[in-house]
């Protein structure tokens, strides 16, 4: 028999329902209330748990049923008794009775404490703070480098393109995210943005994240409506992010500070099954992955033979693209002003992770 010390009550209704205890050699136990005896003692089923897996449970990355039925080591099951002020643990051989176990899918919600810490950090740096967690079914505390790099690039691209669409801006410097912390709880990434918070403790990026949050809604109609609002590059980058998650078999959880004044933290956990269904929605609406863009300026090159062209806009950098050769007939280079409409789509180089925009010319109009 071992003597334990309760170090943290997680859930309390009349008596402690779930708590964390530690023994004399600093081994930790997760304890779940099972019964009250006739003489008033409290009984709990309990398992030994490592600090890493305990952190997973506290952060909501692994549910309580998994913790209790899939211990990390053999002979980790115990019956814990609270009698008066004494807390003792006795080894339990075999599996716990089914009626003692919690329901599948019960995750501990530590959001209030964690959210308060998140808001405090946002106040301290006066910038939006975002947490992004990549979760595997096995709750590994490491991650494939290609998964991490591809996931972060696709996520950043989704943020940039959504910000530009919502605020009609070509400047995405405010939406650039910087990684500040990696945590081995599944695999958590904490980021902050370049944009400063306004007098209400919010920001344009916070509003952007609220729009992105709708893309992961459980409501299919809301997802489609949001896709049609953002469409184009944002929809394409959203699909890329989903593809990365499915390719590497990870689900995702995120939260972000919406306002430090009202201490609002928004977020969501998105399961692997939901990610698959979201990919299905995106595939059924693949036309939303391109967007039409209009430019005014001058052609500096145009070939009827191969349909290649180069255009110098009045503002911004030169762009190049393809077209049906007939569209380019009669084009006057350099001297004449045109308005062109293009279908634009984005791709990413798997090696350099750089984005490339492909332009397909669909309409030309001479401008006086």
Strand order of the largest sheet: 1-7-6-5-4-3-2
List SSEs in N-to-C order. Answer: EEEEEHHEEHEHEEHHHEEHEEEEE
| Secondary structure tally: strands | 17
Distance between the termini: 92 Å
Give start-end ranges of low-pLDDT stretches. none
Rg: 27 Å
The DSSP helix count reads 8
* Beta fraction: 35-45%
User: How would you sum up the global shape?
Assistant: elongated
Q: Which sheet architecture does the biggest sheet show? A: 7 strands, antiparallel
The residue-averaged pLDDT reads 90
Helix content: 25-40%
Structural class: alpha+beta
What structural keywords apply?
single chain; 368 residues; alpha+beta; seven-stranded antiparallel beta sheet; 8 helices; elongated
What do these coordinates show?
There is one protein chain. This protein is α+β, with helices and mostly antiparallel strands. Helices cover 28% and strands 36% of the residues. It is built from eight helices and 17 strands. It has helices spanning 51-58, 64-69, 111-125, 145-167, 204-214, 220-230, 232-247, 272-284, and strands spanning 2-3, 5-13, 15-22, 28-36, 42-49, 77-83, 86-91, 129-135, 177-183, 187-193, 251-259, 264-270, 291-302, 308-313, 319-322, 338-348, 355-366. The strands form three sheets. Strands 1-7-6-5-4-3-2 form a seven-stranded antiparallel β-sheet. A five-stranded antiparallel β-sheet has the order 9-10-8-11-12, sandwiched between helices. β4 (28-36) and β5 form a beta hairpin. α4 packs across α5, α4 packs antiparallel against α7 and α7 (232-247) packs antiparallel against α8. The longest helix is centred in the middle third of the chain and has 23 residues, at 145-167.
